[in-house]
């Protein structure tokens, strides 16, 4: 089984954390380089990471890969309540990444465009919502790994001010020593 993705993607990282104690190969690609772009086109018509190759099966999208791993008994399914929280985490991640990529592309994210305002409002609402939840009771399952991956990425990319969210800081501290966390850290260079 081979997981293909980047070292920086929180969508890839959550799967690497999930598989930390399993046997799998990780192929890192830089999706912004010509070689990485070509590799991604070769394995995924949706042109995004992560991608899982298991024998003759190729699975796209982290959520679908998670479901596949559950069916293979390599991961434990989430409860419906946890699935809802995961949807909130994914929404937060999608919007934050969209704004990050806009800014990285040199576009002004402080403009008056409806799309940008919607993304910012969504981020603000989801951060407030998740901060109100009992996240301290979340376990180190796919939901916890997904939220950890988001928070660590958002802090690294300076997308949130973690000090404004004490429960999030505690969450990061609580799970920082878990198996796979240090080996999947975003490279500092």
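Sequence proposed for the structure above (189 residues):
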């Amino acid at each position: 089984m081979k997981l293909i993705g980047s070292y920086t993607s929180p969508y890839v990282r959550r799967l690497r954390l999930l598989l930390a104690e399993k046997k799998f190969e990780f192929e890192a690609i830089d999706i912004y380089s010509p070689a990485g772009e070509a590799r991604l086109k070769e394995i995924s018509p949706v042109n995004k990471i992560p991608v899982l190759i298991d024998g003759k099966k190729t699975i796209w999208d982290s959520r679908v890969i998670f479901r596949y791993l559950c069916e293979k008994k390599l991961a434990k399914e989430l409860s419906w309540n946890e699935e809802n929280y995961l949807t909130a985490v994914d929404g937060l991640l999608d919007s934050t990444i969209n704004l990050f990529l806009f800014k990285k592309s040199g576009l002004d994210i402080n403009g008056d465009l409806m799309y940008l305002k919607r993304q910012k409002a969504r981020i603000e609402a989801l951060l407030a919502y998740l901060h109100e939840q009992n996240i301290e009771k979340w376990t180190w399952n796919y939901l916890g790994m997904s939220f950890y991956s988001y928070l660590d990425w958002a802090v690294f990319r300076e997308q949130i001010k973690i000090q404004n969210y004490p429960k999030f800081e505690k969450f990061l501290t609580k799970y920082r020593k878990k198996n796979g966390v240090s080996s999947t850290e975003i490279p500092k260079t």
